[in-house]
Amino acid sequence: MGYNLKIGVTCGAVYCGITLLLFQLFGNSINFTTKFFLDFVLLNIVLYVFLYFPIKRKIYSLSEPKFYYGEGMKSGFGATFFASIFIVIFMFIFYNYINKDFLSSIKDSALPQLNKAALDSLKKSNSIKTLIANSSPVTLMLQQFAFTIISGMVASFIIGAFTSKSKSQKDAEKRN
């Protein structure tokens, strides 16, 4: 658990550091859709890089091939959980104290687009209400937590599969 905590916190810190750097460079000049896509790519790159280490460490510490995949995934899930907690705390601080204008910039950029959209008035009204209701630091934190957990689980599945296969092949070569 200690190693997963260390890797998870490091992973979260790297993601948060890059997020702060991008905020310093671009501020809120990036539209929400582009920002969401960049966050998705950034988070997944950081997760894949950092989850590789605890998964590989766990799999290579085992001697029984039937446990490689499952134990490797559990190790990745543990690191993801700690990274998620770190990132959520950062998000709270970021949206409440550093980038206070983000939520208003979403509303300012999204409301004109919704008003221009070819939707009937009821759908427009419901879309605007949903946008405003979901624009709070707490909802952003919960969405980020869920997003990080899901991305980390997918990364753990993939990395666990490739790493356990690699370890199994190396074990087979040693026996031959």
Can you summarize this structure?
This protein is 87% helix and 0% strand. With 176 residues, it is mainly α. The model has no long low-confidence stretch (mean pLDDT 83).
List the helices and strands and how they pair.
Blueprint: H1 2-26, H2 32-61, H3 68-98, H4 102-116, H5 121-133, H6 137-175
Helix pairs in contact: 1-2, 1-3, 2-3, 2-6, 3-6, 4-5
Derived from helix and strand composition plus strand pairing, the structural class reads: mainly alpha
Distance N terminus to C terminus? 35 Å
Largest sheet: none
State the low-pLDDT regions, or none. none
Percent helix: over 70%
Q: How many separate helices? A: 6
Give the strand tally: 0
Mean pLDDT: 83
- The H-and-E topology, N to C, reads as HHHHHH
**Overall 3D shape:** elongated
Instruction: Please state roughly what percent of the residues sit in beta strands, choosing from under 5%, 5-15%, 15-25%, 25-35%, 35-45% or over 45%.
Output: under 5%
Radius of gyration: 20 Å
Features:
single chain; 176 residues; mainly alpha; 6 helices; 0% strand
Can you tell me about this structure?
The protein has 176 residues and is mainly alpha-helical. It is 87% helix and 0% strand. Helix 1 packs antiparallel against helix 2, helix 2 runs parallel beside helix 6 and helix 3 runs antiparallel to helix 6. The longest helix has 39 residues. The radius of gyration is 20 Å and the shape is elongated.
